[in-house]
Amino acid sequence: MGRDMSISTNGQTSERKSLSELAPLEAALFDIDGTLCDSDPIHFHAFRELLLEVGYNNGVPITEDDFVEKISGKHNDDIGKTLFPDWDPDKAAKFLDDKETMFRSLVPQWLKAVSGLHKLCKWVKDRGLKRAAVTNAPRPNAELMISILGLTDFFHVLVVGSECERAKPFPDPYLRALKELNASPEHTVVFEDSVSGIKAGVAAGMPVVGLTTRNPEKLLMDAGASLLIKDYENPKLWAALEEIEKFLKRNEPFAQLN
């Protein structure tokens, strides 16, 4: 794939990076919600029910378009300001805490991995790549989802946006993951499903594979995604990985983190 132009979070034009330029691949960074699993329906259900209870929007249930515009991929602090601009911050925080509690109660029954996830994770692990989960989700949510997906031992690092100076769409969480893994952005790939997450990965200097789990393809491309896939069975992804594999077989591998 050739180079294209994208816009970073600081408004400057930057080159859209190609996966083929990553060889030798050193690390893989994954968002969680919508990337490892299709969790948006669970979040949507919890928000819709609790917003009805507080009389949001005059008692009219939020739509999926409302969810995508105001909630999906965003950090809870920003969601609170968007949904409740006139509320006391503590009241908004309490609502969001209640929503996360409801979400966690539903996850064990409803959570499903994105198709092909474990196939990709095996590919990543078999090649000794460094790996991190990087999310705007609260840590209890992230740890629960990773556990249910059977990936607790897969990730070397878990980075949570609220524990960084700035959450996505700023690059801080991805920059922290690179630092903790001692990995180079020149040899690291990011997997994301949201506009804010893709912007964060691009701003951190890495190519991003965008998953069209729920968000419109145009928005993901405009955010700077290098490649769009529906899931991890997509032939375009495996063709790109095969190109990287060819380089790995011809050269000495990077030091591995097992």
From TrEMBL:
- The answer to whether keyword Nucleotide-binding applies is no
Pfam families per the record? HAD_2
- The answer to whether UniProt assigns keyword Membrane to this entry is no
Q: Which domain of life is it from?
A: Eukaryota
Annotated keywords: Carbohydrate metabolism, Magnesium, Metal-binding
MF terms (GO), sorted A to Z: catalytic activity; metal ion binding
Name what cofactor the protein needs: Mg(2+)
| NCBIfam families tied to this protein | HAD-SF-IA-v3
Q: What is this protein called?
A: Haloacid dehalogenase-like hydrolase domain-containing protein Sgpp
- Could you tell me which species this protein originates from? Dendrobium nobile
